[in-house]
Amino acid sequence: MKQIKKILVPTDFSDNAELAFNHAQEIAKRFGATIDFVHIVPTIKYFSESISLMEAPLDMIDDDIYPTAQKEAKAKLQDLMSKYLKEEFKGEAISRVDRKPFEAIAELASEKEYDLVVMPSKGRHKSNLLRGSTTEKVIRQSRVPVFTVDDKLTSEGLKRVLVPTDGSMISFAALPLALSIANIYTADITFYHVQELYGSPLEYEGRNPNKSDETNLYETLIDHLEDYLINEGMEDVQIARGEVDFEDQFVITDGASNHRVNFYTVVEKGVSAHLGIEEYAAENADVVVMATHGHSGLAHFFLGSTTEKVAQSLDKPVLTVKPPAEKLSKK
To answer: 3-class DSSP state for residue 160?
Structure first.
């Protein structure tokens, strides 16, 4: 499982932004992590509100131009942290100035080596799009996993974690975080694979003519999953095959003890991967955890295609995971 020690929570001070606070603390409690809050003062907005009070070139972006805005933002952040976080989880209140808040958030997350970014699906204006524009752009830019939450997600209601996969090693990059989330919330995991109209890249691997297409794909997925655990050195996680196909368990060893996480595999035929994921998740998932790249790094799960469409459109919390650069370079 992935260890989470540093969590970043961006906020625009809207009521909607507060949705992320409780979930960040829930995760911090499980891992003994610290939580930093950040607010990015957007320069255009600040200029529009206060340029009449300043005698400075319009193209200047410097902390000296924005002392009041940054000071007020930091004070608000500290108040929010005192209100929502227990003392043992409180980290740093960070205020920065930038033309593009989404870039600043993504850069900060990478620069300070955060393990997770937690933010609401929608921002201040709660646009008709299910993912706010800043959140959507952070997902696209961030090298750090981004967990987007909404008002329908509660600790008691998070019991079904959906992991879409095309069976590639890269698509399984979502697994460590999926296991962490399942462990935190005592949830089950479902691996979901779409056999699209033009076929699946797994169809040509060791097909047994005496078994159904779904069973052949299921067994290939399990083989690939076991290969992933070995390749990634996840020796503390083993697969215990169930008595019934499509129903198995992860056995996670922690010192002298171990515990189990149920996981299921669903293989469906569909017109396209993203439509299949959205339709299945709508009725069968509380949160979707998915890699931003998949088969060959490009073909099936590429940010801008399946993952981005799901992250934009799905009316469910989504946790996106970008595989390490060295994995993508081997595609």
So the answer is: strand
User: pLDDT tens-digit profile of 276-310?
Assistant: 888 999 999 999 998 876 544 444 444 446 766 77
Looking at 149, 173, 192, the residue that finishes a domain is 149
Q: Is the pTM of this model over 0.85?
A: no
**Of the ranges 5-19, 83-97, 140-154, which one carries the lowest mean pLDDT score?**
140-154
Q: Convert the pLDDT of each residue in 11-23 to its tens digit.
A: 988 877 788 898 8
Q: Which helix (H) or strand (E) holds 138?
A: helix 133-141
pLDDT tens readout for residues 63-89: 455 677 788 889 999 999 999 999 999
Same domain, 114 and 167: no
- Domain membership flag for residue 1: no
Buried-exposed string 202-216: b where 16+ CB fall within 10 A, e elsewhere = beeeeeeeeeeebeb
What is the three-class DSSP state of 237?
A: strand
Look-up of token digits 């952040």: 77
CA–CA–CA angle 31, 34, 39 (5° rounding): 135
Domain termination residue (choose one: 107, 128, 149): 149
Annotate 270-315 with DSSP letters as a single string.
ES-HHHHHHHHHHHH-SEEEEES--GGGTTSS-TTSHHHHHHHH-S
Q: Which of 109, 190, 97 is nearest to 143 (CA)?
A: 109
- Total number of domains in the chain: 2
Residues 187, 179: contact at Cβ < 8 Å?
Answer: no
Length, in residues, of the chain? 331
* pLDDT of res. 105: 95
**Structure token pair of residue 325:** 């650069």
